[in-house]
Amino acid sequence: MPLFNEKDECRLIEALKIHIPDIGELLNSPVDEAEIIAAESLIGFQFPHEFRKLYLKHNGEGEQVMGVMAGFSWMTLQSVTGTWRTRQDLPYDIISGKPDAVRKADIKRAGFLLLKMAEVRY
Q: Residue 95 CB: number of other CB atoms within 10 A?
């Protein structure tokens, strides 16, 4: 199912309006095309059309609402690129721009490392 309907409305936002009528006001202002191009350049691949379209409508969720993505936070584009940068510094290859390209062994080792990092932080 496409993310946007025939009226070019985001289906997710429209569904949320049933429960949170002012959801549009609680989301962040959109990014512009230049910000998307900069993020794509940093990450090294072009975002899918609907992803771009989504961020051209809203740059993630605002501080007054959280978990709009099925209980998960809708990250700002700046958070997306910041997270990508952070994960580039991990000692294991757990990130890939290609489907099914992450090796299972690396996921297990990286998962263990992330758990260890969490223990240190908390």
A: 15
Neighbours of 10 (CB within 10 A): 19
The answer to whether residues 56 and 31 touch, using CB atoms and an 8 Å cutoff, is: yes
Residue pair 59/31 in contact (Cβ under 8 Å)? The answer is yes
97, 91 Cβ separation under 8 angstroms: no
Q: pTM score, two decimals? A: 0.68
**Distance of alpha carbon 73 from alpha carbon 65, whole angstroms:** 9
Q: Which residues pair with 72 in a beta bridge?
A: 69
Whole-angstrom distance, CA of residue 90 vs CA of residue 59: 26
Closest-CA residue to 73 (of 87, 60, 88):
60
Residue 120, token pair as written in the block = 């240190």
Q: Report pLDDT for 1.
A: 80
Mean pLDDT of the chain: 78
CA distance 23 to 10: 12
